[in-house]
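Justification of resources, computational component.

The compute hours requested in this renewal are based largely on the per-chain cost of generating structure records like the one below. Each record pairs the submitted sequence with a full structure-token output. That output is archived, and it is also reused by downstream analysis tasks.
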Amino acid sequence: MNVMGIIFANDATLGALTNKRTMASLPYGGRYRLVDFHLSNMAAAGVRHVGIITRHNYQSLMNHIGSGEEWGLELEEGGLEFLTPYAMSATDSYHGKLEAIHEAMDFLNSGPEDEYVITCDSAIISNIDLQDVLNSHIASGKDVTVVTKAGIADGFKQLDLALKLDEKGEILDVAVDYIAPADYVASMDIFIMSKQYLRNTIREFIARNLFHMDRDLILGQWQKNAVTINVYPFGGTALYNESLNEYFRNSLALIDPAVRHDLFGGIHPVFTKVRDRVPSYYGENCKITNSILADGCMLEGSVESSVLFRQVTVGKGAQIENCVIMNDTVVGEGAQLKCVILDKDVIVHPGAKLCGTPNHPLVIKRGEIV
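The structure output for this chain reads:
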């Protein structure tokens, strides 16, 4: 069965963390990037023709993915392709996902006549069996399948797409950009449809200034009874990294063994770019508690309930609590950090004190000296 995948790198911003990178290349979990989960999900489902749609700041993403070898993909036509509607469009930006695919229509038309298309957004990560989702879509006989997650709607978080279902799983209501109550389920921004249906829809919608997957295709067509929708409920862990606070909370959530196992020890492995480093060094007086540490670290101080990426240096007497610290950062002797996100290559002076809160973490951008 032929299936192609489209991953939206998502240029939505998380402030300083995404000023110079896409959401897809945002570091996560000590050694991964958000895109790793989507590439791994597709590779495990046998999807070998994958396009990554991004507009700008994609150099970091390209450096990370490289040739695509880690995911069994090849960086060439018919394998893995980077698609840049921003560069191909006559305008400075595109309005929505349907227009983005329209600007990259050569990809949709390339290769064999794939029967189905899986699209996903980088900000929401999970370890999901896309083959099972595809089987559900085919069995339903409906136009579009939407993967949903219960428990995300809480009356406070604004959802891109929210659905209310009856006891049989049929749709009672659809809303976009909605602060939904708890009886709604949230879209995981994973959609499956036939290639022919997607192409026909894009051709008709773009001609009528309709650009959005959620608002125009799902909501608009459902209201007109012009589309049939299959809802696939996902029962595993799904982490929505759509705000700085969510990213911070989801990074520290990996400390929970249940969350960690569901993401990395679940249905299939999560692959990433291989970067071999020496093992981390634990000094005689260091104290590490309830934390995740990557390789290559030099640890002389104390680390509690934190996530440290590769080659982080923690000086003597330094105290780190509830922090996310990315590659090649140096924390000087006696420094105190609490609820802080340090991007790559940050230098924290000896004795410095940096403090945020769980709901408002302090972010230090890449390469800063503080």
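The two ends are 54 Å apart (CA to CA). The chain has ten helices and 28 strands.
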